[in-house]
Amino acid sequence: MTFEELGLEESLLEALDYMGFEKATPIQEQAIPEILKRNDLLACAQTGTGKTAAFILPVLNKLAAKPSSNINTLVIAPTRELALQIDQQVQAFAYFVNVSSCPIYGGGDGSDFETQKRALKSGTEIIVATPGKLISHLNMGYANWDHVEHLILDEADRMLDMGFFDDLMKIVGFLPKKRQTLMFSATMPPKIRKLAKSILQDPKEISLAISKPAAGVLQAAYLAYDSQKARLIRGLIADKPSYTSIIIFTSTKKKVNEIVRELRGNGYNVQAVSSDLTQKDREDAVRKFRSHETRVLVATDVLSRGIDIKNINLVINYDVPNEAADYVHRIGRTARADSTGVALTVINPDDMYKFSKIEELIEMEVPKVPLPKELGEGPEWSTKPVRHGGRGGGRHGGGRGRSGGGRSGGRGGRHKSGGHKSGGNKSNNNRG
Ligand code: AMP
User: Which residue from 6, 21, 334 has its CB within 8 A of the most atoms of ligand 1, so it is best to mutate?
Assistant: First the structure.
């Protein structure tokens, strides 16, 4: 379906044309008409499906038809990175419809807070915020929320996993009862239904094939002991000089640092993204990776959801994520928008049971590829949970378990840019 058929305003069609979006994605096809009809929405959609544009376009369409000088739309996202990315997409479209937006997240110095405060006080139409920082502003009482027409929760399941339920309920308490609420979630566990029940009214439900990797991702897995992992990863990178963008995911910051040290020690151009770094360093690392200055990015799950980096050739899971849905998010970094990509997962004996659960979720068996000969024999595949008698990682010893990665995003982070009026002057080509 084309965007014209969806009935979008001329200015947005121009924006879409500029951005090279020709056809609506399935989530856009289903969500945009419902949002334009002012229905509440409960949408189950993964990142990579075009869900951001699915909620931004109809909101901007309404603002284009009926401009506002108040806070009109509040988007809440779990992490700073996602909030920033949503804001950037809003700006890319909003340039054509003269709407302003401001990202609100934490971690910066006092001047950032002041910029955000000004944006809130002056009635910036679209606010994209992480819950924690938004609450700090809400508590000060200077923003007028009476004119909010749209509340959008993105990655709602992630926000609940991060313990934001109470914060979300508090934020909702500041907003008008009569509003349109849109909730996007990659998974639909009972706690999401509970949240939906308390904040949505008679929502239309949209569900896109839950937690299935995009069709273009070629998946494979290596069975390896921890002691074999470093060499295996080095080999995988060395083998594929044509892969210019590679992401390695691991579950802990400690592992991120170890992998980066190891690869740098072997002469690879590598950057890290984990909650250990300042927001600025994280943004720098992502920017360098996006611009192909850096070939390999090593990250915790901070990056696995929501972050849109194009043309990644290879995703390597250094370990199996704790949450099955995170596997889909991690490998969703590759093969976006109709391209193909490769996702390789390294599985130690501890992780085999967990990986078998992932295979159940995605309803496919991921082929297990033999280790390169020089690494020696790897462990046998087994789907039985491992009982530990003190020797993690199997017969070659090595580390065990993890402690959930990417929780670092939302609360607290660092703020970078303030409110910005995006639209109006189309001859100004300064939009990044
Ligand atoms: P999202 O799921 O919102 O993270 O979007 C994933 C990627 O798809 C982003 O790079 C979008 O810019 C891109 N995208 C979204 N909608 C379309 C579309 N209709 N046509 C082409 N690319 C799109």
Answer: 21
pTM of the model: 0.64
Q: Which residues pair with 206 in a beta bridge?
A: 43
Report the nearest-CA residue for atom 6 of ligand 1: 48
**pLDDT by 10s per residue, the chain, length 432:** 999 999 999 999 999 998 888 899 899 999 999 999 999 999 988 766 789 999 999 999 999 999 999 999 999 999 888 899 899 999 999 889 989 999 999 876 677 889 999 999 999 999 999 999 999 999 999 999 999 999 999 999 889 988 999 999 999 999 999 999 999 998 788 899 999 999 999 999 998 765 566 667 889 999 999 999 999 999 999 888 888 899 999 988 899 999 999 999 999 989 998 877 787 888 888 889 989 899 999 998 766 655 667 678 899 999 998 777 778 878 877 765 555 788 999 999 999 988 988 887 788 899 999 999 999 999 999 887 665 554 333 334 333 333 333 222 232 222 323 344 443 333 333 322
Greatest C-alpha distance within the chain:
68
Cα of 104 from ligand 1 centre, angstroms: 23
The residue whose CA is least distant from atom 8 of ligand 1 is 50
CB atoms near residue 283 (< 10 Å): 17
Separation of CA 293 and ligand 1 centre (Å): 23
Q: Is the CB of 51 under 6 A from ligand 1?
A: yes
Q: Write the DSSP symbol of residue 23.
A: B
> How far does the centroid of ligand 1 lie from the alpha carbon of residue 78, in Å?
19
The residue whose CB lies within 8 Å of the most ligand 1 atoms, and thus the one to mutate among 4, 23, 25, is 25
Comparing CA positions, the residue from 146, 136, 141 lying closest to residue 179 is 146
Instruction: Answer positive or negative: Cα dihedral of 286, 288, 290, 296.
Output: negative
What domains does the chain contain, in order, with CATH numbers? 10-207 (3.40.50.300), 217-375 (3.40.50.300)
Rounded to whole angstroms, the Cα distance separating 219 from 424 reads 45
Distance 53 CA to ligand 1 centre (A): 7
